[in-house]
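Predict the assembly for these two chains.
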Amino acid sequence: EAGVVQSPRYKIIEKKQPVAFWCNPISGHNTLYWYRQNLGQGPELLIRYENEEAVDDSQLPKDRFSAERLKGVDSTLKIQPAELGDSAVYLCASRGDRGLYEQYFGPGTRLTVT
Amino acid sequence: KQEVTQIPAALSVPEGENLVLNCSFTDSAIYNLQWFRQDPGKGLTSLLLIQSSQREQTSGRLNASLDKSSGRSTLYIAASQPGDSATYLCAVRGGSEKLVFGKGTKLTVNP
C-alpha cells in the first residue's frame, strides 16, 4: 500500500512570492489533514478535510493561505504572498474511516522563504 | 486548551540501555494518544496508538503506557540501538479530532 505522497520535498522562494504544495493521501482515506511544523516544535493543524469539505480550518491564516480538495482525493495548500515566518515543514496526513483512526503522515515539504 | 509536554527535550544514552520518554497532557478528555518517530528531514512514522480505554500497547521493543486520569504517558524502549536515534513525538486526540503534539524528545543512542 502506497503511503501519503507529497511534492515538492523542498522549496526555496523569496518573500512575497506564491507557493503551492500538493498531497495525495492513502487510497481510500477520506480524511485529509495539513499540518505546519516549525523548527523544534510539534506539528500544528492547519486544516482538516472530510472528502472535499473543509470541516476544520480554524487554524488556517486565511489572509494568505488557501487550500482545496476538489474531488475529495488529492489536495493543494497555497500561500500567497509568502512571508519569512512561513518557513517551516508542511505535512500532509490522512486516515481511514474504520479502526483506530490512526493518522498517517507524508514526508513533508520543507519551505524556506528568503 | 489542550497542552502536551514532553520531558526530557533531549536524551543521550549508550547502546543497550533501556530508557523511558515522558509525555504529559493537561486535558484528560482524550480519545487516544499516539507516539510518533521523526527522523531528520523526514515525516512522522506512527509507532503506537493507545485508545483512551487502554492502559498500554506494545510493539517489539517499544511499550507505551497511558494513565488518562493523571494525564501521563510513557514510551519505554528496551535495549536501545543506534538506529533508534530520532525525535519522538507524543500527540493526543480530543473531541475535535485534532492531534495536539508535544515538542518531542530528541534521542541519541551512542554505539
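The interface with chain A takes residues 4, 31-32, 34, 36, 41-46, 49, 51, 89, 91, 93, 96-104 of chain B (CB under 8 Å). Chain B has no helices and eleven strands.
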